[in-house]
Structure formats: structure tokens, C-alpha cells
């Protein structure tokens, strides 16, 4: 069955009058527009048959609208729920093919899966002749792959980490123009230490500004933070005395849903919260100085601190100043920015902190203040341990990145 590319409702209406809807294994004719709200986007071919692909699985309904917008995605769903179509469709919708440049990279842990994914891309690009797809994995003479890259460089590359890294190290495969980075069955690749190292080295060879999508049927609690570390982090070098002014500037400039600001001590949490309130920022403070009862028992009107936490969780307050009490185990959906006002004392603590920013289908932005040699040392340890490249925060921030 030939497939095509996604169009908006208005674009589709110019081409077709009726739509044939495909719904995960069966076909059913439907009047135009009779489908779930998918950001009003439809997949149709360029031929006269006016066929449309539409899959109503929860995974696709939830993920595709976000992925099409270029948001980072970490998705867990059982096999057969259509995860592959999510990154195939969203990548094809966004890609702008340029001759000789790889725009999308898909990594998977076996050659069989790599071949299968490449086949899916080929199905969906039947009516997109300008987009070239190729698959690379071990067991095939590497000279064959080198010749293909030299003579007919694909726009979309699918492959296993070992072969992809080998081609990249030999400079046969250029990754500097990659805009979409996908890991399928990411848990399989990230749980294996050797394969994780390959993936991390490949990741570092791609641009910092790109979309990251990860998919798996099983995603353990241990591997989720490893996945999240591939999202966007930045740092700011400044003096200790400049932190308050810089924080105020950031809160004025950033378009955030909610933000968590981490500090290193109870006293600093209380002082910073007081300062923010004096500057008319909607702030609350939670720290380890509160009693265990105040932090965790069900909310009652007699517990002021607990009511503050509830206000933040429900969105009534938008700024939370906290110690590392909030760095582990507390999940608040609306938080899309984390600011390390004080540098954490270890790489593990850093990872737990920045994991608070960004939930399923959303981008998270982490900004860390580095004001001393010790801060820089911790930042270097984070980058070395997790093999990520944390960039200095640019003067202007594109709101679409978080």
C-alpha cells in the first residue's frame, strides 16, 4: 500500500473530497475529517486514489502531534502499538532534504530491526522520491557502505551503533547536519555498557540543536534518567554576586510553565524564596528543614507548607525553590525548566535534578549556574560520565526549544 506525506486539513481538502481511513489493521471508509484530532494533520498520497493513513492507537494519538512540532519524545508502549510510525511520520513531515546531507539518524540494536525500520521508511516515501533512505549494519562489507555514502548519500540513515560509529569515525558518514536523532528499543542499547558508549559517541558527533526521540516496549526506572540526559542542558558562567540578577533576568525572559530552582542549603532556599517574593515572582519554598509529616501527609488546611506544595503541583504557583529533597522521586508534569542556582555536589545529583524538567512529549530545559572552579569541575564530571556536551546558554533563547 503506497503512502505519502502529512498535510494540514486545508491542504488535504484541496486534493481530496473523500478519505479512506486505515485503522491499525483494518480499513473503513469515512467522510472527510471523521477522525481523531491529530493536530488536523492527515497523511495522503499524491495519486488520485486519495488514500489516507490514520492510526488510532493511543501511542500515535499522543505522540505524533508533539513529535511533528519537533518536541523531544520518550515513549514506552508494548509491541504492536505503532511506535515506529510515530518517528517515521514525524520525521518525514519535518525533513527538508539537502543533497549530500544526512538529516535523520535512527539507531537500533539489531540488524533485523534496522532492516525492518528502513523498510517502513521506504513504504512511506513511495511518493517522496526526493528523500533517500539507507540502512547500515555489521555483516555487510563496509566498502559497500562507503561507496553508497560517497555516491548516493541518504537523507535518512538507519543502522546499528557499531557500524554507524565505524563509518562516522572514518569520516565516511557525516553527522553534522542531523536534525532528528532516534533510538528504537532504546533500553536494549542503553543497558548494554558497550553499546551505550557507542550511542553516546555518535550522539556527541551530532549537533546540539536537534530533536531526540526514544522508543521502547520496556523502560525501567533505572534507564529513564539515562534517556533524559540526552535532552537539552546549558550552563552560565558568572560570579556568586551575579546570581540573583541573572536569575531575575531569566525568569523575566523565559516563557515557562513552571520552574524548579535548586539550591544547596535550607537557609539559601529560604533567602532566595523571600527575595523572589519581594520581586513579585509567584514563588514557594520546600526544603529538608520541613518535618517529614509536613512534607508527605495528606494535605490539610493546618499545614501551610503542604498547602504551598499542593499549590505548586496544581499549577497555582509557578516557581519552586527547593533543596535536593525535590531532586528525587517527585514528578510534577508542568515543570519544563530546571535552574541549578547552586551546582549539585555530584553527577548523580545533577542527573536527578535535571530529570524534573520535561515530561512525555515535551521538551525540558536545564540551566546551571557555574560560579567557581569547583562548579566547573562538577560540570566537567557530568559531561565526562554521561558523555554529553553541555553548552553555554546563548544570549537569546528560542522558546520552541523548551
TrEMBL record:
* Lineage: superkingdom: Eukaryota
* Keywords assigned: ATP-binding, Helicase, Hydrolase, Nucleotide-binding, Nucleus, RNA-binding
Q: What class of enzyme is it?
A: hydrolase
> Gene Ontology terms, cellular component aspect?
nucleus
InterPro entries referenced in this protein's UniProt entry, alphabetically:
DEAD/DEAH_box_helicase_dom, Helicase_ATP-bd, Helicase_C-like, P-loop_NTPase
Residue ranges constituting the Helicase C-terminal domain according to the UniProt record: 246-401
Indicate the segments forming the Helicase ATP-binding domain, all copies. Answer: 64-237
List the subcellular locations: Nucleus
> By its UniProt entry, which SMART domains does this protein fall under?
DEXDc, HELICc
Enzyme Commission identifier(s): 3.6.4.13
Provide any one GO MF term from the record. Answer: RNA binding
What residue ranges are annotated as transmembrane? Answer: none
Instruction: Please give the CDD domains that the UniProt record associates with this protein.
Output: DEADc_DDX39, SF2_C_DEAD
Subunit info here reads: Interacts with ALY2 and MOS11.
Family, per entry: Belongs to the DEAD box helicase family. DECD subfamily.
> Per its database record, what is this protein's job?
ATP-dependent RNA helicase involved in pre-mRNA splicing. Required for the export of mRNA out of the nucleus. In addition to ssRNA and dsRNA, binds dsDNA, but not ssDNA.
| Annotated PANTHER family | ATP-DEPENDENT RNA HELICASE DBP3
Name recorded for this polypeptide? RNA helicase
Naturally occurring in which organism (per UniProt)? Escallonia rubra
Q: What is the lineage of its organism?
A: Eukaryota, Viridiplantae, Streptophyta, Embryophyta, Tracheophyta
Amino acid at each position: 500500500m503506497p503512502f505519502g506525506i502529512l498535510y494540514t486539513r486545508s491542504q488535504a481538502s484541496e486534493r481530496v473530497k473523500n478519505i479512506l481511513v486505515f485503522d491499525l489493521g483494518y480499513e473503513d471508509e469515512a467522510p472527510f475529517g471523521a477522525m481523531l484530532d491529530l493536530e488536523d494533520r492527515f497523511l495522503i498520497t499524491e495519486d488520485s486514489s486519495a488514500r489516507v493513513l490514520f492510526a488510532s492507537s493511543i501511542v500515535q494519538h499522543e505522540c505524533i502531534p508533539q513529535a511533528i512540532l519537533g518536541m523531544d519524545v520518550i515513549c514506552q508502549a508494548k509491541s504492536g502499538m505503532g511506535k515506529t510510525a510515530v518517528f517515521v511520520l514525524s520525521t518525514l513531515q519535518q525533513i527538508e532534504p539537502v543533497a549530500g546531507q544526512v538529516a535523520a539518524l535512527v539507531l537500533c540494536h539489531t540488524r533485523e530491526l534496522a532492516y525492518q525500520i528502513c523498510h517502513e521508511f521506504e513504504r512511506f516515501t513511495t511518493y517522496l522520491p526526493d528523500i533517500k533512505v539507507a540502512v547500515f549494519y555489521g555483516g555487510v562489507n563496509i566498502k559497500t557502505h562507503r561507496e553508497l555514502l560517497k555516491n548516493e548519500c541518504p537523507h535518512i540513515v538507519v543502522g546499528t551503533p557499531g557500524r554507524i560509529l565505524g563509518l562516522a569515525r572514518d569520516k565516511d558518514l557525516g553527522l553534522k547536519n542531523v536534525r532528528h536523532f532516534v533510538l528504537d528499543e532504546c533500553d536494549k542499547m542503553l543497558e548494554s555498557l558497550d553499546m551505550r558508549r557507542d550511542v553516546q559517541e555518535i550522539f556527541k558527533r551530532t549537533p546540539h540543536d536537534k530533536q531526540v526521540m526514544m522508543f521502547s516496549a520496556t523502560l525501567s526506572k533505572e534507564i529513564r534518567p539515562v534517556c533524559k540526559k540526552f535532552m537539552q542542558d546549558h550552563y552560565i558562567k558568572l560570579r556568586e554576586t551575579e546570581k540573583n540578577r541573572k536569575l531575575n533576568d531569566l525568569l523575566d525572559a523565559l516563557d515557562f510553565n513552571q520552574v524548579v530552582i535548586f539550591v544547596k542549603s535550607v537557609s539559601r532556599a529560604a533567602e532566595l524564596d523571600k527575595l523572589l517574593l519581594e520581586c513579585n515572582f509567584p514563588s514557594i519554598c520546600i526544603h529538608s528543614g520541613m518535618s517529614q509529616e509536613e512534607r508527605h501527609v495528606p494535605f490539610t488546611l493546618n499545614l501551610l507548607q503542604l498547602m504551598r506544595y499542593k499549590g505548586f503541583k496544581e499549577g497555582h504557583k509557578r516557581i519552586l525553590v527547593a533543596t535536593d529533597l525535590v531532586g528525587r522521586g517527585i514528578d510534577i508534569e508542568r515543570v519544563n525548566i530546571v535552574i541549578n542556582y547552586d551546582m549539585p555536589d555530584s553527577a548523580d545529583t545533577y542527573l536527578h535534578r535535571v530529570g524534573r524538567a520535561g515530561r512525555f512529549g515535551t521538551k525540558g530545559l536545564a540551566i546551571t549556574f557555574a560560579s567557581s572552579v569547583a562548579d566547573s569541575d562538577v560540570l566537567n564530571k557530568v559531561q565526562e560520565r554521561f558523555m554529553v556536551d553541555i553548552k553555554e546558554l546563548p544570549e537569546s533563547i528560542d522558546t520552541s526549544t523548551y
